[in-house]
Amino acid sequence: MGPRLAKAEAAIKTDPGFAGPRGQPTLSGLLKCTGSNLRPSAAVMGCSEGTVKSTPPSRNDPSGMKSQALAVHYCDANISLGLGGGVTGGLIWDWDYGFRPYLGFGVVLPPPGSASVTCSFDEVSPGWYVAVQGAYGIAVQGGKGPLNSASGGDYYLEGGIGTPGVNVTVFDVFEGWTYRDVVKFVNDIKFPWE
Question: What is the CATH number that goes with domain 74-177?
Answer without folding.
Answer: 2.40.128
